[in-house]
Automatic annotation (TrEMBL):
Stated role: Topoisomerase IV is essential for chromosome segregation. It relaxes supercoiled DNA. Performs the decatenation events required during the replication of a circular DNA molecule.
Active-site residues per Swiss-Prot or TrEMBL entry: Y138
SUPFAM superfamilies cross-referenced by the UniProt entry: GyrA/ParC C-terminal domain-like (SSF101904), Type II DNA topoisomerase (SSF56719)
Keyword terms: Cell membrane, Coiled coil, DNA-binding, Isomerase, Membrane, Topoisomerase
Keyword Transmembrane helix among UniProt keywords: no
Lineage: Bacteria, Pseudomonadati, Pseudomonadota, Betaproteobacteria, Burkholderiales
A molecular function GO annotation: DNA binding
Source organism (scientific name): Variovorax boronicumulans
Protein name: DNA topoisomerase 4 subunit A
Membrane-protein topology: Peripheral membrane protein
SMART domains, per the entry: TOP4c (SM00434)
Amino acid sequence: MDDSQPPLDLAGPTDGDTTLTLADYAQTAYLEYALSVVKGRALPDVSDGQKPVQRRILYSMSRMGLGFGGTNGTVGAKPVKSARVVGDVLGRFHPHSDQAAYDALVRMAQDFSQRYPLVDGQGNFGSRDGDGAAAMRYTEARLARITSLLLDEIDEGTVDFIPNYDGSTEEPRLLPARLPFTLLNGASGIAVGLATEIPSHNLREIADACVALIKSNGKLSEEELFALVPGPDYPGGAQIISSASDIADAYRTGRGSLKVRARWKIEDLARGQWQLVVNELPPGVSTQKVLEEIEEITNPKVKAGKKALSADQTQLKAAMLSVLDVVRDESSKDAAVRLVFEPKTSRISQDEFVTTLLAQTSLETSSSINLTMVGIDGKPTQKSLRQMLNEWIAFREITVERRSRHRLDKVQDRIHILEGRQLVLLNIDEVIAIIRAAEDPKAALIARFNLSERQAEDILEIRLRQLARLEAIKIEQELAGLRDEQKKLEDILSSPATLRRLLVKEIEADAKTFEDPRRTLIQAEKRAVAEVKVVDEPVTVIVSQKGWVRAQKGWASEKAAGNGGTAPEYSFKSGDTLYGAFECRSVDTLLVFGSAKDKSVRVYTVPVASLPGARGDGQPVTTLIELDAGTHVTHFFAGPVGACLLLANTGGYGFMATIENMMSRQRGGKAFIDVGEGEQLCRPSLVGGASGAEPMPAATHVACASTGGRILTFDITELKSLPKGGRGLTLIDLEAKDTLAGAAAYTRSVRIDGIGRGGKERDETLEIRTLNNARGSRARKGKAADLGFKPASIVRVL
């Protein structure tokens, strides 16, 4: 016997039309894999809100008899070992990892993960601090009572059944959900190229929204809809501080981010002392996480590649230790969350204490919304709140219609059987005689009484005790009830209005049974921002050409006046020189301008208070910002937020903007100035609004100097302010191959710096009389100036 394998033939078919390239095959295979992950694992279905593994667990537990029964559905089954449930799920429906199935089961039992837990777990099912559940051989589980809304109608023809993975049995494609569980419990998942983050909601609010949409035939206004569903209702409570418009935008688009903060109370202690107790946390936040964050702040570690703590770490540590004395976790079985914070002293402002904690920890955080799911058409898409509710209502209409038709078929079959029995009871003696005498009683009964085979078969199987006179009365009563039910069912199936009324009635009944109060408070508040107290005092920000910065107390010009008018001299590292000394205040801002990349210039913000002192050479500004890759620092300016700057680029364009317009909270700054291909930002020039011992007056004109030696001056009113940035207007009409050396706002004089013969640095100050000779309108060519050197930059003198 030859066990050798034949060589693999990789040659494609001879017909060119059916040839499949490796790229096409890989694309097709990956697409199939992606769709399998999206629809088979990661995303919930809008119809029942369940992922496939959750649906299989619930159906398997229902088959095992682990649901609630009794006349009112209030009698629960005895729990069984979770391992038994997982084994049944894996063996029949879900041939994957046992741990994956158990993790899904555990999540459905956690009241801090799901707003309405679907599994009633007994034993250790984990904690919100991240503690894992006990092994499946130790825990026990049964279905929660609310799962009746998912499973009660499953045997009433409401949904399609499909073969399981090996064809040995069948499983439901969907569960006949009587409420939109996609919104009630939410979902979280990551697929291939798609992700979902659906928050949980309050059952009564969602039910009311469904009822209103059904009654209005889908014409409910957005304002009315958002009034019924004001926002998510998280399992752990907390408070949503985003505005109603932000919540509405997230619901309208299916994507957004909400600001959520913890809820707390102040407990008064003896001798005027007090403590802050947090009893509700935002979603995804645990007491352990908050404790770890505070430990990291109060005992910071030196970052990788650094020799000491950064200024931010030191400042944050000092701010936290100045208000916080002790924090401890007092959570227990009686209090799921109890996080106690004791202030350094009772004299600390409670508002300041709370703001510091909210700003520096996860007690205030963001919760994303991404309403992506598998729609009623089977396609994974991002939907709005209205679309989700409308699709679920459409699914529920189909479900009730199928249930009614299934019930009608059973009612009609029962009526058919009872009509045959009724006929037999009227002729009981003759029927008995036929049965005793005929060789084929079934055929004889059909021929004599015009019965159907179904009726004849039933009569032959009937018990003698059912031939009593009392039975005839019962049959008449049952027939009357069944015919009434038949009329109602036929009315439901023939009248859309009747169907909608039934939907409303059932939704309201289910909501009344399972409703509970809202847990999450929705109240708009301003986001907590930690304000570091900075002494407002005059400082001089010293910046070198290579980007080393430091702040010296006092204003340089005042020191020079006290020193006989001698200008101060600053020391720098070898090969470095002064870029500029900016007189401002410690509460002001240093702007750092990067080089152009992708036709834009980023502006970075550094608080003057965070700059190192004047001793030594200072600190590289690149350690205070996150410079965009492939760029370098080019220019600087420090001053108050109201200071206005003239921003020009080498292409001859420019505009005005304030420091406040360019500020950003991000260390990565923000793109603010647009430039053309190959263009760069010229040195920014002060227009007005700066501080200092002798603040510059507001500029009245603009002077432009090109590298070709042309100068143009014009009235500053011809320029525009662009608060959101951009490229601006044409300042000077440049000749081909000529570029703008710089533009400076001025009142009386400017200084032009450049390079003369032999590479020697040259400069020349132009007074107002000379500048007036170059006066014109904006965007003109200007006049040629005999400077004797090539201009490189222009700065304001007065």
